[in-house]
TrEMBL record, chain A:
The chain crosses the membrane at residues 40-62, 82-110, 130-151, 171-192, 213-241, 283-299, 311-333, 339-363, 375-402, 414-436, 448-467, 498-523. This is Cytochrome c oxidase subunit 1. Its main location: membrane. Belongs to the heme-copper respiratory oxidase family. PROSITE patterns: COX1 (PS50855), COX1_CUB (PS00077). PANTHER family: CYTOCHROME C OXIDASE SUBUNIT 1. It comes from Sneathiella chinensis. The lineage of its organism: Bacteria, Pseudomonadati, Pseudomonadota, Alphaproteobacteria, Sneathiellales. Keywords: Electron transport, Heme, Iron, Membrane, Metal-binding, Respiratory chain, Transmembrane, Transmembrane helix, Transport. Coiled coil: none annotated.
UniProtKB/TrEMBL annotation, chain B:
This is cytochrome-c oxidase. The gene is coxM. Keywords: Copper, Electron transport, Membrane, Metal-binding, Translocase, Transmembrane, Transmembrane helix, Transport. InterPro entries: CcO_II (IPR045187), CcO_II-like_C (IPR002429), Copper_CuA (IPR001505), Cupredoxin (IPR008972), Cyt_c_oxidase_su2_TM_sf (IPR036257). Its main location: membrane. Residues 112-254 form the Cytochrome oxidase subunit II copper A binding domain. The lineage of its organism: Bacteria, Pseudomonadati, Pseudomonadota, Alphaproteobacteria, Sneathiellales. The chain crosses the membrane at residues 40-62, 83-104. Signal peptide: none annotated.
């Protein structure tokens, strides 16, 4: 399957870049702090993202306490509540998920899985992390400035975001915008690195169509991010100007509490277009790496090639492309030209087709597989179910007329948490259980891992599934309290209490997971090499964990695709990508070879 | 095996929850039954897919569990199967999209005979304006907003003189007559949402947005703001009263017009209204 003979490989062109001379660290400081090793940078990214993510987790507890038990907590005023939801959303979407998938998994896995020694620009890679760290610190600082962080909602819609009826108008919004601008600068440095590394530094024989889907996912997501973030960048800068210099990019004539402000001529809807031109691809910046990683988890743990590899690659590319022409489905009731609804509903529902194909291919990979119910597989299955659920509610919201009653209700909250919160996070967990032995040479505690999985999967479903029904009823989102509303029965308060309790438990399970991580780094059971019997290159390094430079004196050569599991006639049920074909190895038995 | 049982419970439980839970949409009070119908169509199509896929995964997990003596099948692609799945999915998508767009076409096309009513939002209250005898809403400008002219109506426009202004009261509408809401905001984004009508739209400062409904049952309903508009967002409520035609006309006749309000203001206050034209862009 997908073989090239050794002669073929010699005929292949070498990478454009010759072997790099790596800068080897000489001290603790250059090894662990100002490191230029992508693997260390990955861990720095992951640690920082996790820490700020824990802040967002605590914020979600606080907001759930208010929703479940209104009037019970004196320290949660409307100001606080709106600050919690804003910071929770922004941290989770940008500073945790984006940073973790691209900065964390991207840095660790790209060089290893494509057979490179490091990223092509290690110094810029280091800078990328430090700018990201500065952005995170700036964001965290908003909790301590006068007036506190902004409470404008994570979408930061003007005019409200920069007017005095919104918390954090003085400092919070300014620092938030500055932090986002910094994040984008840092990301661009890292992102260019990932793309160029994938294009230029692949090992001999690693054709694009032999790359593991993990790399395809991260690669396409990075391209999306490089194209989408500039749109956020300009909207952030323009909003900053509106706030600080009294320009009116997004500000029309405004009468605020009877007082006429000096703004005029700007368009609030322009901001929404710019924001969602970034914001929708952002969903896929988080989802596409998860698609890629989960494909590899399923294939490895079901001991079967991923079903329809070429279709999977094409689906990722098509989804990436389409994600740039669906943004206004976030704006169906924004007051934009209503005729846009026809176009954006159609483009949005078309995206469902390649996405559904990916789902079919994951479940068809399980068909006639040899399934290990290991932790990564459990999380992968959890992802599939959660993602199907979140995906089909997307068909409600994407279909413009169905969106009309549901937009701005709890249905939307439930939908996006399922599809871009819980689903990708389940993949992150599966990936950590999968690659932890590679990264540390040790196992995570499996008992705690199972506890973590069951509470997270079942708990998250219990939180978000019923929440959709509040949205059907018409319960709006971003309400500090529902108060007395005739159409909302008392049973809604009970359901809100239940959801809050479930959220507290699921949150606590994440603390158990963090404990497991820290404990296992030092005292976990030692792992043998390539414990999952995986085919991809990161498991074929000389040492585990891999050293700086990743591979031995010779870079690996790649003879086959990443999915030679259970090949008929082979001795083992897996053949590593760098294993030359046996003299008697047959050509591909069936199907078209994806080479 | 636990995972297979849980997956079956998820599939069966979700369907049971859908059927038996008390949380569902409110009784409809407008002409948008078709919106509910599109939701139901979407539920059927997606629900079948969800249950089928979940049960399929549960089956695979049981049937193809790891065994040392067995090997997974080696079959990278199956063009025919992939093609069929693509076609079926596309049909499902068309089945949801086509009726959806058809209803949307009606949603964005108010009937020509619809009554116009203006909804004005500001932090954090609702006010309403009827066109009065002439059936035409007078022109407005945010720059004209003042204490005595809270709607910013152009005083030189004759069409505005008989406009009926409602502040601090519910919006009254007659049963069975199509109404086109014209939405306007003085400060930030708001959203005019009545769950029983199934319809909503943002209010955007600097422009006028719209949607239309026909009320189909009498009663009192609540207006919710559905676009985050600052600290008082959750308290930005209003009332709406659907009445029989006669009751509505009686009520409407008792309300004051713009001209009357202006005269009252001149009589009782007799002071010039100062508009702070040199105010800073934002209040610190």
């Amino acid at each position: 399957m997908a073989k090239a003979t050794p002669t073929d490989i010699d005929d292949l062109e070498t990478a454009d870049l010759p072997e790099m001379d790596l800068y080897h660290p000489k001290s603790f400081l250059t090894k662990w702090v100002f490191s230029q090793d992508a693997k260390v940078i990955a861990l720095q990214y992951a640690t920082t993202a996790t820490l700020i993510g824990l802040v967002a987790l605590v914020l979600s507890w606080l907001m759930r306490l208010q929703l479940g038990f209104p009037d019970s907590f004196d320290f949660i005023a409307p100001t606080d509540y709106y600050q919690y939801i804003t910071m929770h959303g922004m941290i989770m979407v940008i500073y945790l998920l984006t940073a973790l998938f691209l900065g964390g998994f991207g840095n660790y896995l790209i060089p290893l899985m494509i057979g490179a020694r490091d990223m092509v620009f290690p110094y810029m890679n280091m800078l990328s992390y430090w700018i990201y760290l500065a952005a995170v610190l700036l964001l965290a600082a908003t909790f301590f400035v006068p007036g506190g962080p902004t409470g404008a909602g994570w979408t930061l819609y003007p005019p409200q975001a920069i007017l005095s009826g919104t918390p954090g108008r003085e400092w919070g919004i300014v620092l938030m915008l500055a932090s986002l601008a910094l994040f984008i600068v840092g990301f661009t440095m890292g992102g260019l690195n990932y793309v160029i590394t994938v294009l230029q530094a692949r090992a001999r024989g690693m054709t694009l169509m032999r790359m593991p889907l993990t790399i395809w996912g991260i690669f396409v997501a990075t391209i999306l991010a490089l194209l989408a973030f500039p749109s956020l960048f300009v909207s952030v800068i323009m909003l900053l100007f509106d706030r600080l210099l009294n320009t009116s990019f997004f500000m029309p004539h405004i009468i605020e509490f009877g007082e006429k402000l000096q703004y005029g001529g700007g368009s609030p809807i322009l901001f929404q277009h710019l924001f969602w031109f970034f914001g929708h691809p952002e969903v896929y910046i988080v989802a596409v790496p998860a698609f890629g990683i989960v494909s590899d988890l399923i294939a490895t743990h079901a001991r079967k090639n991923i079903f329809g590899y070429r279709m999977m690659v094409w689906a990722i590319l098509i989804i990436g492309l389409l994600s740039f022409v669906v943004w206004a489905h976030h704006m169906y009731v924004s007051g934009m030209n209503p005729y846009f609804g026809f176009f954006f509903a159609t483009s949005t529902l078309i995206i469902a087709v390649p996405t559904a194909i990916k789902v079919y291919n994951w479940v068809l990979t399980l068909w006639r597989g040899n399934i290990h119910l290991s932790l990564p597989m459990l999380f992968a299955i959890g992802f599939i179910i959660t993602f199907i659920n979140g995906g089909i509610t997307g068909l409600f919201l994407g279909n413009v007329i169905v969106d009309v009653p549901l937009s701005d209700t709890m249905f939307v909250v439930a939908h996006f948490h399922m599809v871009m919160g819980v689903a990708p996070i389940l993949v992150v967990f599966g990936a950590i259980y999968h690659w932890f032995p590679l990264i540390t040479g040790r196992w995570l505690n499996q008992t705690l891992g199972h506890l973590h999985f069951w509470i997270t999967f079942v708990g998250a479903y219990a939180i978000y599934f019923p929440m959709h029904y509040l949205g059907f009823m018409g319960v709006p989102r971003r309400y500090y309290s529902l108060g007395e509303t005739a159409f909302i029965p008392d049973s809604v308060a009970d359901l809100n209490k239940f959801i809050t309790l479930a959220a507290l438990v699921v949150g606590a399970a994440q603390i158990v997971f963090i404990f497991n991580l820290i404990y296992s780094i030092f005292w976990g059971r030692k792992a043998e090499r390539n414990p999952w019997k995986a085919t991809t290159l990161e498991w074929q390094t000389e040492t585990m964990p891999p050293r700086h430079g990743n591979f031995g004196p010779q870079l690996p050569r790649v003879y086959r695709w990443a999915y030679d599991y259970s090949v008929p006639g082979a001795k083992d049920d897996f053949i590593p990508q760098n294993q030359p074909p046996a003299p008697d190895e047959e050509a591909a038995p069936t199907g078209a070879p994806p080479s | 095996m636990a995972i297979a049982i849980v997956l079956i419970l998820v599939a069966v439980g979700s369907v049971a929850f859908h059927i038996y839970s008390p949380w569902w949409w409110t009784e409809i009070a407008s002409n948008w039954n078709q919106i509910d119908l599109t939701v139901v169509i979407t539920f059927w199509i997606t629900g079948i897919v969800f249950v089928a896929l979940t049960l399929f995964v549960a089956y695979c997990v049981v049937k193809f569990r790891y065994s040392k003596n067995r090997r997974a099948e080696y079959k990278p692609e199956n063009k025919k199967l992939e093609l069929w799945l693509t076609i079926l999915t596309s049909l499902g998508v068309i089945g949801m999209l086509a009726p959806g767009l058809w209803v949307w076409q009606q949603y964005v096309s108010p009937p020509p005979n619809a009554d116009e009513v203006e909804i004005v939002g500001q932090q954090w209250q609702w006010s309403f304006r009827y066109p009065g005898q002439d059936g035409i809403l007078g022109t407005t400008d945010a720059n004209l907003v003042s204490f005595d002219n809270p709607f910013g109506i152009n005083p030189t426009d004759p069409a505005g003189q008989d406009d009926i202004l409602i502040e601090g009261d519910a919006l009254h509408l007659p049963l069975g007559r199509p109404v086109k809401f014209l939405l306007r905001s003085h400060d930030v984004l708001h959203n005019f949402f009545i769950p029983q009508f199934r319809a909503k739209m943002d209010l955007v400062p600097g422009m006028v947005t719209y949607f239309w409904i026909t009320p189909t049952r009498t009663g009192e309903f609540e207006i919710l703001c559905a676009e985050l508009c600052g600290l008082g967002h959750h308290q930005m409520r209003g009332g709406i009263l659907i009445e029989e035609e006669d009751t509505f006309q009686t009520w409407l006749a008792e309300q004051q017009t713009f001209r009357q309000i202006q005269q009252d203001a001149r009589l009782h206050q007799n002071r010039p209204v100062k508009i702070a034209t040199d105010a800073p862009a934002g209040k610190e």
